Amino acid sequence: MVSGIVIKSTGVWYDVRLENGEILPCRIVGKFRIGKLKLTNPVAVGDQVSVNFIEEETKVGNIVKIAHRRNYVVRQSPRKKHLLHLLSANIDQAILVVTIVNPSLKQGFIDRFLLMTEPQDIPVTIIINKSDLMNEEDHDLFEYIKTVYESIGYSTLLTSATDNEGVEEVRQLLKDKTTMVCGQSGVGKSTLVNAIDASIDTRIGDISDYTGKGQHTTTFAEMFTLSFGGYLIDTPGIKSLSFNNLEPMDVAHNFRELFVLSAGCKFSDCTHREEPKCAVKAALEEGSISEYRYRSYLNILDGIEDQNYWERHKDI
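RE: above sequence
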């Protein structure tokens, strides 16, 4: 038995980088779960694993054990709604790439992404890409987004692979760390990654003229070694995010500013909607928290409650 780290997942095969640097294609032996949660892919890029050679000559192995994960990022499977999909494991930080133009900003998507990373205490930097396409009004929106998220502890950066704006700052952010990079299709994630490190050969897709959305260029997660130090986990373009693994109070606890304020609510299980003497609603009326973030929170709660209990707990 030998140890290694999973650097690529295609859903059936997993590439494992062994301690000697060799890359070993592997399959899974047995069933793996995170507690009671059922997964479409029980092994994630970034997992530390133990493997057995099926045959020494064939250079193919079986993953027989997964080491304890210090963290992981999981989302609801887009195809099998009652299952979860692992995006990565054992990361130091995450980067979310979004755009204000081409395609237009989906503000609620930022909060949904943060709801995946916040339960695991994973630091996140929000990158607004394609600054070369932004006008004065777009820059005003960026300043608003920056103010909202930096006030609650999330870093923001403005970048352009075309003009090289912010590229060096991103390199410094990535250096000597293991970073998961995510984004919706069409935001220029692959182009930006290639600008950061030309040694990474990721596939670049064109924006669809009809939909304004990008073609899916990354179809599986993969870990790349950065030439200047560190590792980057590139993930498939995400269209939307839903949550079958969360209850309403989970959402309330993982919106940072709402959780801090909730200590002043009359009821310990306050959902910050119609309850009396709610500290969150009071802060909203005073303008001390973002109305946009609050509306995003309500939309997520509505989406979770629209799924009945059985749909959200098929895994139990």
